[in-house]
Amino acid sequence: MKNIKNVDIATIRRFPAMDFIGNDFAIFDNIGDIPLFGYPTRLNASCLTLCLKGHCRIRINLKEHELTEGVLVVTLPEQILQQVERSDDFTGVFIVVSGQFIDDVLPTVQQLFPLFFMIKEQPCVRLKPEEMEAVQEYYSFLQKKVKLKDNPFRKEITQGLILSLFYEIYGIYQGNEPAVRKTKTRKEDLFERFIRAISESYKMERSVAYYADKMFLTAKHLSTAVKEVSGKTAGEWIDSLVILEAKALLKSSEMSIQEISDELHFANQSFFGKYFKHHTGMSPKEYRKQ
């Protein structure tokens, strides 16, 4: 068996007919020159694909999905993808966004966080004609803006459009939510309640025991269920929200590091600095200077 190959935006930059912003963003509509691997590949980015014609069968984390005209598929960073079959007439539009790019454009992460749970549970959604038109309009506008390489605010404009597109997709998924809920297990329901709880309180509470008590569970039972459903521990989910918020505040606010430490209810700035470096490999000051 082949090892799982890791692919990111830097890997695909050598292919023609694509527009890029560094190693953070790629947009294209010609898939003919791009090898979609017939063996499991870990994509270290999020990919939005809207099928316009033909069909394609893919596996996302080993589960098979079929793309036909009008189907939108959204994959998340670190998911394992594999192409099973692709028709000769398959066409679509493709937007690839790095994890860091997503972190930078989601300062209101607690609002959009449920979307990522929905995407993980149901990566493919069939669009209505007006929804399909809306996604294509975003694609067209993004493609035009990315081509403006002399514009000093090209990246910021693109980030704003991507944030708007995520809200558009969130609305589409909410419209399809009843179909999602029919297949939800008890553990998945528990996981969603846990995500909602930490989205409300992660600035104040980082203890798994706190959320377990709030949900009338033992910490061990909560952690086991969360790990089984999501592949990440309860503690990792809490830390990911805290770090995302810290990154957003460091990049998009004028708050001092001390003020951010206070905002996130750390005992002191030193403890916040050690926590941030443990999870990112750099100090808050170094991250802000990037």
TrEMBL record:
PROSITE patterns: HTH_ARAC_FAMILY_2 (PS01124)
SMART domains, alphabetized: HTH_ARAC
Gene Ontology molecular functions: DNA-binding transcription factor activity; sequence-specific DNA binding
Gene3D superfamilies per UniProt: Homeodomain-like
Entry keywords, A to Z: DNA-binding, Transcription, Transcription regulation
Residue span, HTH araC/xylS-type domain: 192-290
InterPro entries associated with the record: Homeodomain-like_sf, HTH_AraC
PANTHER family, per the entry: ARAC-FAMILY TRANSCRIPTIONAL REGULATOR (PTHR43280), TRANSCRIPTIONAL REGULATORY PROTEIN (PTHR43280:SF32)
Name under which the protein is recorded: HTH araC/xylS-type domain-containing protein
